[in-house]
């Protein structure tokens, strides 16, 4: 699925976040210590190599809703933006903290003149955020930010499986219908 709004292309695909060679930055669904983990974080750290974790260590810990930027090392991108999403039912207000991840990642991208950024579905794996709710928060936040973006021209959601892709496509389609 692909939509262009205010000159920014928003895409939703199924794939692997570490294989987004045509994007300047990818987003890591990080843990507070910015260490190698499971899921998205594990895949990114393994693909980037040990220098990524070395750069991250002095930046940790981060709090839910916060983001930091590093180099991408062996990844095909220039940057990794690490976001700590909320643990659902623990970190509150979870909706505001999750929205903060997307908003701050886009702010960091703008500050670093990054033209393209690829996101995973933050907090929906091990952190337990319900996929539909998290997707609505993500798209509402990003659609609110798009008119203000000057540098970012491409935003991609990279979903690991078909179920996540279907949910993201449906939620985005429903939100866009309501806005028109």
| Mean of pLDDT | 97
Number of helical regions: 5
Strand order of the main beta sheet, please?
Answer: 1-2-7-6-3-5-4
List the secondary-structure elements in sequence, H or E: EEEHHEEHEHEH
Protein structure class: alpha/beta
The portion of residues assigned to helices is: 25-40%
Shape: globular
How many angstroms separate the termini? Answer: 17 Å
* Biggest pleated sheet: 7 strands, mixed
What is the beta-strand fraction? 15-25%
Poorly predicted residue ranges: none
Count of beta strands: 7
Whole-number radius of gyration? Answer: 15 Å
Give a nutshell description of this structure.
The protein is an alpha/beta fold.
Description:
The structure is a single chain. With 180 residues, the protein is of the alpha/beta class. It is 38% helix and 20% strand. It contains 5 helices and 7 strands; from the N terminus they run βββααββαβαβα. The chain has helices spanning 39-48, 50-56, 94-111, 131-145, 162-179; strands spanning 2-5, 8-14, 25-29, 67-71, 79-83, 116-119, 154-159. It has a 7-stranded mixed sheet, sandwiched between helices. The longest helix has 18 residues, at 94-111. It is globular. The relative contact order is 0.21. The model has no long low-confidence stretch (mean pLDDT 97).
């Amino acid at each position: 699925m692909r939509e262009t709004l205010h000159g920014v292309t928003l895409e939703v695909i199924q794939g692997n976040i570490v294989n987004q060679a045509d994007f300047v930055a990818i987003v890591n669904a990080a843990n507070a210590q910015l260490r190698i983990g499971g899921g998205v974080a594990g895949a990114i750290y393994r693909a980037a190599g040990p220098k990524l974790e070395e750069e991250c260590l002095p930046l940790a810990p981060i709090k839910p809703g916060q983001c930091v930027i590093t180099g991408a090392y062996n990844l095909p991108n220039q940057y990794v933006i690490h976001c700590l999403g909320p643990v659902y039912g623990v970190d509150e207000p979870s909706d505001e903290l999750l929205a903060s991840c997307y908003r701050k990642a886009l702010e960091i991208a703008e500050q670093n003149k990054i033209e393209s950024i690829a996101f995973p579905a933050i907090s929906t794996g091990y952190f337990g955020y319900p996929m539909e709710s998290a997707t609505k928060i993500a798209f509402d936040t990003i659609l609110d930010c798009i008119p203000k973006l000057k540098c970012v021209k491409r935003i991609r959601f990279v979903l690991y499986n078909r179920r996540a892709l279907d949910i993201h496509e449906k939620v985005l389609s429903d939100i866009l219908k309501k806005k028109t």
